[in-house]
Every structure is written in structure tokens, then in C-alpha cells.
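User: Can you predict the 3D structure for this chain?
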Amino acid sequence: MGDQSLKGTNWGRINIDEKNLSLSHLSYNVIKFPLKRIVNSNIQKNDIVLQLNTEECAENEDMLCEVRFYIPPKEQKGEKKKQESNEDDLDEISYLQQVQKEIVKKAKIGGSSDSILTIHEVPLIVPRGKYTMDFFKKDIRFHGNTYQFTTDYKSITRFFLLPMPDEVNLSLVVGLENPIKQGQTAYNYIVMQFKKDLETEIDMKYTREQLDNLGWKGIRLEYSGSMFDIVCEILSEITGIKVVSPKNFKCKNGLSCLRCSVVPHSGFLYPLEKSLLYIQKPVIYIKHDDIKEIVLQRITQTTQNKFFDIKIVTKNTQYLFSTVDREELDNLSQYFNTKKLQVKKIQEENEGINKALDESDEASQQNGNNHKTTLSEMDSDEDDEDFQVQDDSYNSVQFQQKVQKTRAVNNK
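Assistant: Here is the predicted structure, written as C-alpha cells:
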């Protein structure tokens, strides 16, 4: 602790050596940590955001997982002027980008030279962009034009391979125990999208002996074929997790999913063997065992109502999937019954409500007729004859004169 600043200072100069990154002020360290703990580094406006590895963090233990360095625009310009001797190199690179580049290089975030396998131009729809996937001994690193992120194999919990309604693409959904972050947004799922007819060839950078030493005995040295098949096979072999795909459920047009909305986004709901999965934004995964009740809403028999809603109540929360095509009601009801899921009988309740509304309308109609009779009686001549002007009525003299004129006209 001899070189640690204890004054509470939160500014200084960033220093990067071969092993550590530190922020120092007047020769004292404000913060210091090993470069090997940095798993991701991004630029957000004037911030350099570092994501730190929490693999060594025990359960219920607090650990630093993110550090942000703010570099003011004036400071960036000042540092650039100081280094005008390298003007050719700094022409298009700011001081902020220089620091970011050095962190990425020293922490070996973006480097793929020592990776076991590299797959280029993998399209992701969550988070959106094209990324290069580098497979290492303990983790996968995704490198994009703007963002980089890392997920270790132990964090992967499930895989889903889903045929898209366009019948051209397939989506591979990767569930994560520890979410990845881009700015303030955390993603618990990575969604890759592949074309069915896209084929590729991939070679391992390691020898057979090196792969065996890693425990990757099922990984082949060469792969060729459909890109989605290769990625699924490699991920499944490394993690030991099977890839789940839709099997028995089919909607009216033979697809495996229902088009619906989770406000404000439109997406697709996949009824699977043991769960329900909604993509794309947000990705929602619901296990059958967690469902307490399913409520089908807006299913009354009317020509104008072409859609219905599905409300799924779980142990901790509830979800509403709206604007489902009404023609899918029978298939979906059969699916819920087969899986022995509790479905609320909204149809019977609606019939009871409609009956009550009909009775209320009849009562209102009778009251309306009685009201009309009373008005006609008040307008009759007999009521005019029995009418007695009260002393406290407003402008009683004028009112009495008006009544007499009306009677005279009627008598003629």
C-alpha cells in the first residue's frame, strides 16, 4: 500500500506496462489491476470502458467488474499536440483512440494470433452487427467494428437452432449465465443468424495433439459444409450442451413459430418441447415448469376480431404476447393441452360477461320505455289541467300566461 493514493483523488495519468494498467496521480496509484483481468475494452463518447473478468469471484462476493476512464476533449487535443513529432501516425487517431488501442494490444483482447479457431464475418442480430469469433482455451471473443466482448464457455447455458419464417435463414440462440454488456445494455442471449445455403471451410490452428491436451478430443482438424452446422457442432462439442430445435409444433402454414408482438417490438414465438422461446427483441425464454397459468385473451367469436393475446404468468413475472393470428388458436390450445399447461377458460368467462351485458341491455331498454311513457304523460292535456303553479316557481306569471295561450290554440 506504500504507492497507493489515499486522498480520494479520481484523476491522473493512465500507465500501461506489460502486466498492469494503472491510473496514477503524483507518483501514487489511484487504481491498479492486471491486464489479464481485462476481457473487453470499448470507447463510448469520451469514455474508455473496461470490462473485467469475474471468474475468480466466489458466490456472494463483491468484485470489481467494470472501470471507466473519462478523457476530456481538451486533454485529448493537448496530448495530441505534445506528440506532434509522430504527426503522420496521429493524423487520424485521437489520444483516446491511442489509449484504447494500446489497452487492446497489451491485454491481447483483439489479437487472434494465439486463438485455436477463427470464424470471420458471423452475423449477429442480438447484439446487432458482424463479428469475428475467436475460440480460445477458456472463452470466445467477438470482435466487431465498434464493440468487442468475451464470454467464457462456462457461462453458456443453452443453445437453440430456430428456422426463421422466411425459410432462408436460421437463428442460433446462445443463452448466457453472465450477460455481456454494450454500454448500459446487458444481453443474456446472443442471437446469430445464418443463411441455410451458406457453406464454408474452417481449419484448426492447433494440431491433433494440442487439441487432445485441451480436452477437445471431439473437435476435428477440418470442417466443411453449412456454416450453421459447423458453428453448432463446435459449440456443442466444447460445452457439452445439446442444441435444441423445434420438433412437433406446427402452425397453420407449416412453420414452427407464431408471429406476435411484445410491445413495442414484433417477433416470433417458438413453442418447444419443454419451453417457449421468443425472439428477437427482447429474447424471452420460459420453461414449462415455471409457468403457473396461461390466459388466452380476446378470443370471442366476432368477425372483426382477427387476433388474440397470450398472457403467460410465471412464478416471478408475467409476459404478454399480443396480435397472434386467431387461426392459430386451435393449434396452440392443443399444444398447451398436450404439455399439460393450465390454460384459463376465457371463452366461458366471456360468455358469462356477454349474458350479463344482454340482461343489462334489456333492463336499460325497459327503463327507457318507462321513461318515454312518463314524458308523454307529462306532455298530455290532462297534466296541463291538473298543473298547479307553485308560489316559489320562477317567473310564475309569465309561465301561466304561456299555458293559457297554448290551450287557446289547441281549442281552435
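Residues 87-92, 348-394 have pLDDT under 50 and may be disordered. The radius of gyration is 36 Å.
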